Amino acid sequence: MQAISKAELSFSAPERAVRGPSGERALVEARPAEEENAEGKGTKVRALLRHRLGDDIYMSWFKALEFDSFDGKTVKVSVPVVFLRKWIQSHYMDELLKCCKTEFKTAQHVEVSVRQPGAGASRNLGPLATEPAKQAREAAGEPRAAGISEPARMPVIRPVAGRTSVDGFEGSPLDPHHTFENFVVGASNRMAHAGAIQVAETVLTDSPAFNPLYLYSSVGLGKTHLLQAIAWEVKRRAQNAQVLYLTAERFRYQFVEALRAQDPLSFKEKFRSINMLLIDDLEFMQGEKTEQEFDHIINALLDGGRQVVVASARHPAQIERLNERMRSRLQRGLVAEIGSFDHELRHRVLDQRLAEKQAADPSFELSREVIEILASRLTESGRELEGAINRLFLTWQHMRAPITPDIAETVVRDLFQGVEPRRIKIEDILRIISRHFGVSKGDLLSQRRHRSVVWPRQIGMYLAKQLTHRSLPEIGRRFGNRDHTTVLHAIRKIEGVIAGDASLRDEIDELKKLISH
User: Fold this and answer.
1) Considering only CA atoms, which of 408, 409, 428, 419 is closest in space to residue 512?
2) Tens digits of per-residue pLDDT, 407-435?
3) Beta-carbon contacts of residue 429 (< 8 Å; ≥ 6 apart)
4) pTM metric for this prediction
5) Which of 195, 438, 448, 458 is most buried per CB count within 10 Å?
């Protein structure tokens, strides 16, 4: 992830005038001892955060963090923009509090605020910090100082079904539900989601986040949702922003139509005034002339500092039709993969879709047992999960009776094209794990704690939770009479490693296929 821009770090601390050695007046900081003490300890906390979270996460989210004060219970810290505060509060508060407790021994809470104008890192920058600080405050959505004129705010754009358009050139349809508010974040899509938000919030500023942003994933995991969410958010922030969302198929269709009309120049002219181009399903950009035109347009936009966002089923290096220059340019910004949903994320997606249906009809309910069945059976994509909720909602509207697990099983069977999934047993998992890792079943069930045994055992417990309906205590009993907390630790350990290890995700997927067949 990219580091916070200098503009976001430009703030002023309290100052007082003193006489320098030659009699001139100078500005120096007038800071209370409490603040100095907090910052001194905060330096050590930042070092610990960097060590525990890694350079990428630290530079992205904590480089601009400042420690303001400590009252014996609450550590007060600040960041320059609203987005950073929200992101830290949503994802890193537990880790931040743990690190703070190493220096602030009696700390019970951490309070994150947005630094006000005139506070923070620009205390030594003097008048030169004024303009960057103003830009940072405006980027954070803060009001301008009194007496400074401000253009009239654009009205808020509520998502409604429609298309983006530039100079009469219509884009592909936008789904009104594909907004950031409706996107469910988990370990497999957190990086892509963060990149998409940063692009949406900075595209119209002097310091855009990533250009280009390239998202890739298998079908139904949310890349189209994120692309359209970016489009909705930018238009919400600035109604007059020139944003164009196109599928590769629509791009090709419009270009072919221009060729038939013998007016390809007008096609190119459509993109001259654009602020942002979003291209979906890049792998379907077919046709030699279409590909050449796409290359020219993307290069022109990037050279002109215009934002480009691309989504595809494959990494740029795996799309054979891309020439080397285009492949290199698409990888210059941020390339983020959206991985398969883990069990927890599937649960959260189902809960979100259920809540959306309940907003329309509060009497619609699904038991936790039904949600668990869906989360365990529907492992391929978010579209399956949404389709299951839609089918159950329709069934409930006709029956006006509770959705039982048997009904849910029928819906799942329909989604799998009428094939009843084989009921997986923990014995099947033990057998495949034993064979795959070259360890005996006896070792897996034993008390041996060597890594060569513990790692396969943890993967086995994780798969047992993913692929069966067994409870944590039951899984523990079947894995050598272990406590349910041991099983929970194993599941969280594997989920944590999967989030940053593509090769392990592939290995887990392969094991699932072996177990399911």
Assistant:
1) 428
2) 788 777 766 544 344 578 898 899 899 88
3) 460, 463, 464, 467, 468, 515
4) 0.52
5) 195
